[in-house]
Amino acid sequence: MAARAPIPSLAGLLRDRRGTAIVETAIMLPLVTLLLFGLVEAGRALQHQHALNKSVRDAARYLARIPLACPATADTGWASAKANAQNLALTGRLTGGTPIIANWTAGTFTIADPVCETWAGRSVQVISVTADAAYQDIGFLHVIGVSPFRIGAAHQQVHIGE
Fold first, then answer.
1. Band of pLDDT at residue 90, cut at 50, 70 and 90
2. Is residue 105 included in any domain, yes or no?
3. Which domain holds residue 85?
4. pLDDT digits (tens, 9 = 90+) for 95-147
5. Residue 30, CB half-sphere, CA atoms under 13 Å: how many?
6. For the chain, how many structural domains are there in total?
7. Quick check: is 2 in a domain?
């Protein structure tokens, strides 16, 4: 007859340290994974916000340097300049192309018609470009139950018309 292995006592089980690394890993892995994906998602959201801010700034600065009459809406070149600025904001190029961020459309950006105002006895116009876009996450926000959100940006530039 074969000898039976002794039944370990509770004190013996508490002193046994074999397998603790796998247990600690099993406890911490979901938390570390959650933290990692959260940091990636936050980084992407900041990158999209930065790209949106830069796009509206570039479009406003472009329009501020185009020679236009006051008011710009009466100028024959306003429609063309506005379309170029829209392309610049959306794609980073005057001629158009693929959007800087995949889900951006021409409707993401709004270019207000400038109005002539008098400041210190001089006629000036302020160019305003705004943007509002839905943030397209990588799917992590949906998994943790965060509803989709929008990002926005605005920039105003005084027309200098070089």
1. very high
2. yes
3. 10-158
4. 888 999 988 988 899 999 888 888 888 888 899 999 999 888 777 777 778 78
5. 4
6. 1
7. no
Structure tokens given for 149: 């959100």
120-126, long-range: CB < 8 A, 24+ apart: 123/70, 124/70, 124/158, 124/159, 125/68, 125/70, 125/71, 125/72, 125/158, 125/159, 126/156, 126/157, 126/158, 126/159
Structure token pair of residue 8: 């370990």
- Alpha carbon 59 to chain centroid, angstroms: 17
